[in-house]
Amino acid sequence: MSAVLRELGRHWWVLVLYGVIAVIFGVFAMLRPLAAAIGLAWACGVMALAEAVISVFALFDRQAGISKGWLVLYAIASLIFGLLAVSNPFATAGALLMLLAAWLLVSGVYRIVFAIRVRKEIEGEWLVALSGVLAIVLGVLFVLSPLAGLLVTAIWIGAASLVYGILQIVAGFKLRQLHQSP
Q: What is the DSSP string of the chain?
């Protein structure tokens, strides 16, 4: 067995721990999607505040890999977003959902136009066009009913987290078996 696999096998429990946390969050998000969405927005705000603090410290580092001007701009943007997200996570989650809706609308139109332009060159272009139509429908639904969109998005994030957590747990126990085998 290689040294890398031995080292990974020694820390199998880290994957299991990540998996358990992801499963707990996934179940929580699926049972309480609004609270999960607000919690995610708040957590993004906390991370942005941490980035702001780190950027301020980087201003005093002579070997920072980026110009001082960019660091100041990034620190200010992170601070503003962080304060807004922590002080009003519901509004932040709603604003992020509206950005997602706008992206879905633009990407839907793009996919339809792309499908029309390449229809003579590829087969099955209707699937690309259909994905564009579905993206537009989802974007419109998010705009018309942001709360429902927020709930659905949180449920999907919860489901993905649940699957991710289960996969992490399985991988962790496989690493444990690998570590224990001669």
A: --HHHHHHHHTHHHHHHHHHHHHHHHHHHHHSHHHHHHHHHHHHHHHHHHHHHHHHHHHT-TT-SS-HHHHHHHHHHHHHHHHHHHH-HHHHHHHHHHHHHHHHHHHHHHHHHHHHHTTTTSS-HHHHHHHHHHHHHHHHHHHH-HHHHHHHHHHHHHHHHHHHHHHHHHHHHHHHHHHH--
